[in-house]
Amino acid sequence: MNKSELVEALAGEKNLTYKKSEEIVNIIFDSMAEELAEGGRIEIRGFGSFVVKDYKAYTGRNPKTGEIIQVSPKKLPFFKVGKELRERVDDK
After folding, report:
1. I want to staple 73 with a disulfide (CB 3.0 to 4.6 A). Which of 3, 26, 57, 83 is the partner?
2. Architecture, CATH, for domain 41-92
């Protein structure tokens, strides 16, 4: 499922216009992105949680040329699946 399919599903389920459903989905995604950008944590019970993980700098290698490169430290979002979702997916 992609974002537009999610918007369509919400519109159909709750009898909303596509535009209103799209606005709701955008508000949710924007709020989640903002929370993670500020270093926060998001937990949706029964679904999972999102956190930001810090990765340290390291020396890597360009796989194409073999050249040694320095990889900068970075922060990336990480999703941990919740128990209920994991069991629901495993049952199918």
Report:
1. 57
2. Irregular (4.10)
User: pTM for the full model?
Assistant: 0.80
Q: What is the pLDDT of residues 15-52, one digit of tens each?
A: 999 999 999 999 999 999 999 999 999 999 999 999 99
Q: Which residue reads 């949680």 in tokens?
A: 49
User: What's the token pair of residue 23?
Assistant: 């606005």
Average pLDDT over residues 60-79: 96
Dist CA 22 CA 1 (whole Å):
15
Here the contacts of 33-42 (C-beta below 8 Å, separation 24 or greater) are 36/77
